[in-house]
Amino acid sequence: MVMTACQPAAPAGEQGETDPLVKAAKEEGMLTVIALPHDWCNYGEAIETFKAKYGLQVNELNPDAGSADEIEAIKANKDNKGPQAPDVIDVGFGYGPQLVEEKLTMPYKVSTWDTIPDEVKHPDGYWYGDYYGVLAFEVNKDVVQNVPQDWADLLKPEYKGQVALAGDPRASAQAQMSIMAAALANGGTLDDVTPGLEFFKKLNDAGNFVPVIAKQATIAKGETPVVMRWDYNALADKNALAGNPEIEVVIPQSGVIAGVYLQAISAYAPHPNAAKLWMEFLYSDEGQLIWLKGGCHPIRYNDMVQRGVIPQELNDALPPAELYAKAVFPTVEQINNAKQLIAEKWMEVVGADVK
Length: 355
Hints:
This protein is of the alpha/beta class. Helices cover 37% and strands 16% of the residues. It has 2 domains: 20-132 and 259-315, D-Maltodextrin-Binding Protein, domain 2, CATH 3.40.190; 133-258 and 321-349, D-Maltodextrin-Binding Protein, domain 2. It has helices at 20-28, 43-54, 67-76, 96-101, 173-185, 194-205, 216-221, 231-241, 272-282, 285-293, 301-307, 312-316, 321-324, 332-349, and strands spanning 30-34, 57-61, 88-92, 105-106, 128-140, 163-165, 209-213, 226-230, 247-250, 258-266, 297-298. Helix 2 (43-54) links the parallel strand 1 and strand 2 (57-61). The protein starts with 19 loop residues before the first helix and ends in a 6-residue tail after the last helix.
């Protein structure tokens, strides 16, 4: 039995062997995902739990792919029902309009649809927010004696040659969002991120900025001991490094910006029912808690807090909740406008060739 595009399944997490969606997914036998590193938002546990729960195979394509790569994979495999065609994607918020304009995804509303905030879902179900994080400082405490608590701290002479971004601002959404956050902390707005570029010019002129794309290895070695990156990636590093070196994750006192990622089902999915079942799983309380365990705030977080279903130990593992309350969520238009400005003006204003 093939489910219709927007037909809801049984309540998420309650599908049994007799549920039509489960039956249809089992007949397909497989789900193909792309760009899901196991340490990103705890996707490893999500995939293994889904496989065990429903007995489906999960074909994992290119875990290190970016959002643009995921979209290209859909386009390149429109007429291909083989193993290189993704069923589902997880992309940055700014890609939502493109998915609809180019008719790359199919509509589907999960059974928990009403608990997903309206501002982070397409009204017809062509995409929907899955989780979000905020830009944080990831700090190697073995190298940095005084851990910075806010953006202004980064300009102090003691951080000379220590501050880096987790991507090239001319191409990386994470780096661009870092500049947007710096703008908010320095008199700018989501519509005017020029103060963020000016802040990084000051960092670079002071000799504090390191033009290296930071990752776990550079942080651990002390090459980039202070990095701006998504809090869930920083928390994953902290857990993985297990005190060697000791990592502190700081949500700055000002300029707290949140970034949402989106889930969607390919319009050309070879396994459309498995894809829908995957969405039901991810948007169930069980799936949302797996993301939270990985340091990501699931999109249904507020609903789950209100119902008291989040274990205290998961909340305790995150930075203080009151800091997240300061987070602002830019619109797609604001993200795309800032992206264009930063890409065009980075070298002219800041002059640091990040590699």
